[in-house]
Amino acid sequence: MKNNKQQNVFAELSIFRGANSTKPEFETFRVPFQQGASILDALIWINDNVDESLSFRYSCINANACKECMMIIDGQVEYACLKKLQKFGSKLEPLPNKTLIKDLVTDIVPPKEKLLS
Amino acid sequence: MRFVETDVLIVGAGAAGMYASISAARSNATVMLCDKSLISRGGATVMAQMTVAAALGHQEADHWTHHLQDTIKSGQELCNEKLSYLLCKNAPEKIRQMRDWKTNWANDNERIRQVLAPGHGVKRCCYVDFLNTGPAVARTLRGEVAKLKNVTRVSGLTIIDLVVEKNRVMGAIGLNTEAGEYVSISAKAIVLAAGGLTQLFARNSASKNMGGDSHALALRAGANLMDMEFVQFFPIGHLAPRLVGMDPIMWDPFRYKLGGRLLNGHEEQFIENYGGEDGDAYTVGRDLAAYAILKECEAGRGSPNGGAWLSFQHLSKAELDEAFGPIIKKLSANDIDLTKQAIEVAPIAHYHMGGIEVNESMETRVKGLFAAGECVGGANGANRLSGNAIPEAFVFGEIAGASAANTISETPHLSPQIGQNSLLNSLVELSRQQKQESQFKTVTSRKLLFKLQKLMWENVGVLRNKQGLKIAIDEIRRMKNDIFPNLKPASGTVFNTSLMDWLDLRNSLLCAEAICLAANERKESRGAHQMEDIPFKSDKYRKNQIISIIDGHLVSRWQDVQKLEFELEKKCWTTV
Ligand SMILES: Cc1cc2nc3c(=O)[nH]c(=O)nc-3n(C[C@H](O)[C@H](O)[C@H](O)COP(=O)(O)OP(=O)(O)OC[C@H]3O[C@@H](n4cnc5c(N)ncnc54)[C@H](O)[C@@H]3O)c2cc1C
Ligand code: FES
Fold it and tell me: What are the domain boundaries of chain B?
C-alpha cells in the first residue's frame, strides 16, 4: 500500500515572506511530497521542521470549517487546507485585497472585532 | 502595552463563550469576548458536524429525566449529577432558543428531526444538514452576540495569564497577536470558555487552539481540575487515505444511518468478540469500539495503517448518493469512491470529560472565576454520550455568563496602577522563563510539542498501563523542567508564530502532566480510562479526582461524587 519511493520526492514551495514594514521577498522551501497532502499540511511541515517563524493562519486543519487559511495559491484565491500539494510545487502569496500583516497573514479580522484604543 | 477594562471577560468564543456573552450582557454587564483565533471559528464548535442531544420528544416520547439517566449511566458512577442535571434539564430550551434565533435544525415543520445515537435510549439527537451542525450553531450565536451593544468582540487576543489577588480574580494578561502587543485587562469576573485539550495527543480531531489553555490558566490561578484522566477517544476517526477538507470524525453518522461495517485487517467483524453487540444496529458505545480496534491492531489484525476498515460496499451507488448528499462530491475530490473501496479508521482523541471543577453556578474555587463548555469537568463522568457536548456548552455558557454578571456589583475594578504592576510581574515571570539564547540548536517549541503528542498518544492513550504512565510522567517532567525553560521563541512582534507556539506549549505541558498524574493515581479501568494491567473497576475509585497546584507542584486527591438529591424514576415520558 505504501509507496516508499514517495519519501524521496520533494515539492518546492515559493512563499512570500515579509511584514508591512520590511521589504517582501519570496523564499523557497523544499517539502516532502505525499499523495493527497494539502498545501496546509506542507506549511505545517515547514513550521515543524524548518522554520517556526513562517506565519500563516489556520485553526481547524482538516475540516475546512474555520475558513482562516485563505491565500493566493498559484494566482488563485484558495483555502490552503483544500488545495492539494503538487509535485511541481506552488507559489504562495497573501490575499492581495487585504492589509498585509506578515508572510501569508493578512488582516481578515472584521473591523468590529478589533481591540480599539 | 495597553490597558482595558470590562465587567466580564470571556476567554474563548466557541458555543460556551458566545452563550456566556449573551447571558452576561442580558444581565446588564459590559462584556469583552475574546478569542486567540477569530470569534466563533477557532475551536471545536465550528467543527462539530453531528448531533446535539436534547429531550425534546419530537420523534419519540422523551423527558429530560431519561436523558439524565442515560448520561449518568454512561458516566459510570462519576458524573457530578448536579451538573448533568443542569445539562439535561436545560438542553431542550436551548435547542428551541437556537431555533428562534434561526438555527435551521432539520425538521418536519413543527417537529425537529431527532435521531438515535449510541447510548441514548430514544431518538434524541438534533442536527443541521448536511454535516453542518457546528457551523450553523456558530453562525447563529455569532449573529446574536453581534446584536448586543454591551459586548465587545476581540479576535486575535490570546489570554496568557490571570491576575488573582487574595483568591479573587482581578483581570488577565493577553497578547494581541496581530499587533504583537501585550494587553492588561481589568475584569470583575472572568469566564474561561477556551475549550478542550485533545491537541495533546498525536491522533486527534482538534483544532490548533485546543491545547488546554483553559485548564492551565485555571490551575495557575489556584482553581482545581477534576477527572483529568478521562479523555474520550473517538473510535472511528479517519485514518487513510488522506482526506482533506473534511472533519476526521465525519464517518460516524453514516455508520449509524447506513450500517457501515467495521472490519479488521482480515475483513471480519470483530466488535462482538469484545462483548459489544454491533450486529445490524451499530450502536456499540465509543469506549468499547476504540478498545476493540486497538486490540485487533495489537494482535496483528489491524488495517494497513494501524486501524480498522469501514466499509459501505454492501450499499448501491444510488443509496450512497442519497445518504451522503453533497459529501459524495467532497469524497471524490479526495479520490475516495465508497462503492469501490473501504476506508481506514482508527481511534483519535476527541473530547475531554475532565476539566475545571465548578459548582452549580459554574464558579471555580477562585472568586469571580467561572468556567463553561468543554473545559468544565464532571457533567459527563467517565464517558460522554454522543451529542452531549454542544448542549453542555450552551447550558453551562448561559449559566456562567449570568453568574459572572451577578457578582460584578460587589467587586471593584482593578486600578490601572495594579493592572500595570501585575502585567509587569507576569511579563517578568514569562521572560524569566524564556532564555536569552536557546540552549538547544535544534529543539523548537513545535518539535517539543510534536514529541509530547507522540508520548501522550503512545503512553496515555486509549490503552494505558503502569509502566507507560511512569515513562510518560518522567518524560513530561523532563520536558517541562529541563527542556522547556531553555527554549527561546523567535524574536519579533507582529504575528509571532513562534511566541504563540511557545505560550501554547507552556500550557500543554502543564495539562499533560496533570492528565498523566491523574491517570497514574486511578488504579482501575473505568469508562475512557482503560488500564491494561488493571482491567477492572473498583469501588474504592468511585470518586472524583481533584488536581491542584500546591507549593508549585501538582497534587491529586479524591473527593466524593456529587449525587442528585431527588429520585429520578418517577418522571413521565412526554411527546410534543
Ligand atoms: C471535530 C469535532 C466534532 C465534534 N462533534 C460534536 C457533535 O456532533 N456533537 C457534540 O455535542 N459535540 C461534538 N464535539 C464536541 C464539541 O464540539 C465541543 O465540546 C464544544 O463545541 C466545545 O465548545 P466550547 O465553546 O467549550 O469550546 P470551543 O468551541 O473549542 O471554543 C473554544 C475557543 O477558545 C479559544 N481559545 C483557546 N485558548 C484561548 C486563549 N488562551 N485565549 C483566548 N481564546 C482561546 C479557541 O480559539 C476557541 O475558539 C465535536 C468536537 C470536535 C473537535
Ligand atoms: S484550516 Fe480551517 S478552513 Fe482551512
Answer: 2-230+353-421, 236-347, 435-536
Neighboring chain A residues of B135 at a CB cutoff of 8 Å = 65
Predicted structure pTM score: 0.94
Among A47, A53, A56, the strongest candidate for a mutation testing the B interface, having the largest count of B CBs within 10 A, is A53
Lowest-pLDDT range of A98-107, B60-69, B97-106, B244-253: B244-253
Query: Residue B291 is inside which H or E element, if any?
Result: helix B286-298
How confident is the model over B546-561, as pLDDT tens digits? Answer: 999 999 999 999 999 9
Above 80 in pLDDT, residue B426? no
Distance CA B79, CA B72 (A): 6
- For chain A, list the domains and their CATH numbers: 10-113 (3.10.20.30)
Asked if the C-beta of A3 comes within 8 angstroms of chain B's C-beta atoms, the answer is no
Nearest to A60 by CA among B512, B130, B232, B135: B135
Q: Are B74 and B285 in contact (CB under 8 A)?
A: yes
Is A24 strand, coil or helix? coil
Would you give the end-to-end CA distance of chain B in angstroms? 56
Ligand 2 site-directed mutation target among A41, A44, A66, A108, most atoms within 8 Å of CB? A66
Q: Are A18 and A102 in contact (CB under 8 A)?
A: yes
Residue range B174-200, pLDDT digits in tens: 999 999 999 999 999 999 999 999 999
Cα distance between residue B467 and residue B510, in whole Å: 21
Q: Are B148 and B22 in contact (CB under 8 A)?
A: yes
Residue B436 pLDDT greater than 60, yes or no: no
Q: Is B209 in the pocket of ligand 1 (CB under 6 A)?
A: yes
Shortest Cα distance, chain A CAs vs residue B247, angstroms: 4
CB contact under 8 A, A113 and B153: yes
CATH class, range B236-347: alpha beta
Q: Are B309 and B296 in contact (CB under 8 A)?
A: no
CATH class of B435-536: mainly alpha
Residues 6+ away with beta carbon under 8 Å from B573: B57, B61, B62, B63, B66
